[in-house]
Description:
Blueprint: E1 2-10, E2 13-18, E3 21-25, E4 29-31, H1 32-39, E5 47-52, E6 58-61, E7 66-68, E8 77-81, E9 86-90, E10 93-97, E11 101-103, H2 104-111, E12 118-122, E13 130-132, E14 137-139, E15 146-152
Parallel strand pairs: 9-15
Antiparallel strand pairs: 1-2, 1-8, 2-3, 4-7, 5-6, 5-8, 9-10, 11-14, 12-13, 12-15
Amino acid sequence: MVTVTAAPVSKQGLQIKIDDQPFEVRDPIITGRQILDLAGKHPASEFVVLQYLPDGLLEEIRLEETTDLRERGAERFITFQSDRIFRFTLDEREFVWGAPLISGAKLKELAGVDPAKFDVWQEVRKSDDRLISDKDEANLDQKGTERFFTAAKTTTEG
Length: 158
């Protein structure tokens, strides 16, 4: 998984970071294939690029699809070596992900909650919901759409 972020560096281009490595992009309109090329992910057809949207959701960027890095919040990407995306809901919002497993810590990050104050749970049909700790991984490769929700941590201290 690779995280890409962009920030203006000059009138000529944008600074892009891939795995904390800086790159300058001259053209603010970039394709999924160009993102993968910058990250050294070859062949591009074996990877998926997801873009963080301003509202915190993720969207797949196809290889030849473009995105405008000048738009606020359009500069963050995650890449996965995968041939598919996985769909799930988190706090009733639909997300896509590029791997069959996702950690509790990543789910909290996507939900935009304080990880020290919130837990994330996986809804389980006909059974008790499952607490997903920060280090636990939930399997998104099951039949149907996996459903998660966050809730304030509760303590037994008085």
